[in-house]
Amino acid sequence: MCGGRGTRLDTDAEKPLFRVGGVPMVDRVLGALEESAVDRVFAVTSPGAPETRAHLDTPCIGTPGDGYVADLDAALSDDRVSLPVLTVAADLPLLDGEIVERVLDAHVEGSLSVLVPAARKRELGVSDDATFEREGREVAPTGVNVVGASGDDAWLTEDTRVAVNVNTLADARVAEELL
């Protein structure tokens, strides 16, 4: 998923092309997927990220740019896509093939949300503005999920590689330090 404008990032670069450690975040995520057992990759783009689409060599699925959920729904309706689907946000510069494999191993059937404790994000010093309660614990989405035909399972991890989403320049500084 690499169609966001990244307004909170406060930079002229499109969010997926924002460089962490000198490498565009979307390239880091694509590299992690290449290191994993994932066999097909589509970049989900929107009109809000035309430079990202031009940058990519990966097959793209264009969406209207109406927000993450609407764009995900549009991508899932593409004829080339069949469930289950691993979805990954382009703002995870610490992602690598090993953690992608752990997510795939945690998925049994249906849908799987990968979550981190909100306290872990705070401990790392990264933004945590999308937290919610799940089974009595404050958690945050990571931007990594498996979308299946049914179900709503969750995998809770404290792994830094999925806990650091770059939404702000402060998040980017933390990611740079952790690389």
UniProtKB/TrEMBL annotation:
Molecular functions per Gene Ontology: transferase activity
Residues annotated as domain MobA-like NTP transferase: 2-122
Transmembrane segments: none
SUPFAM superfamilies: Nucleotide-diphospho-sugar transferases
Pfam families: NTP_transf_3 (PF12804)
Keywords associated with the record: Transferase
Keyword Transferase: yes
Keyword Nucleotide-binding (UniProt): no
UniProt-recorded name of the protein: NTP transferase domain-containing protein
Gene source species: Haloarcula saliterrae
